[in-house]
Amino acid sequence: MTDKITLTLTLDELKLIDKYVELNDETESVFDKIKGAYPKRETLTDVIWNWWEDVFTTNSNDDMETSIDDLVARVEAWLPKEHDTNSYKWNECIRTIKEKLR
Predict the structure, then answer these.
(1) I need a surface site. Which of 8, 40, 64, 94 has the fewest CB within 10 A?
(2) Which pLDDT belongs to residue 53?
(3) Are the C-beta atoms of residues 76 and 91 closer than 8 Å to each other?
(4) Region 52-79: what's the mean pLDDT?
């Protein structure tokens, strides 16, 4: 039986390891499985494309103001969340971006 391994690496750290570690066929397969276990982050382009598609389908009866408000809400939801840590600069940056959206 194989024990479950838990890693606390970020996807960026994983990519860095991938960049500098020479893998053979066997270890590359395992590494690909590990990378595949990480959730795929939606890009801002993805958010906008999905919104654009919805504007002409499910939300086609919305007026311009409602459509723009929906886009802003989606971008705001896409932004990283504030940390519970004492990372003042990070949290201030996220708050400023959100304020500038409105």
Answers:
(1) 8
(2) 94
(3) no
(4) 91
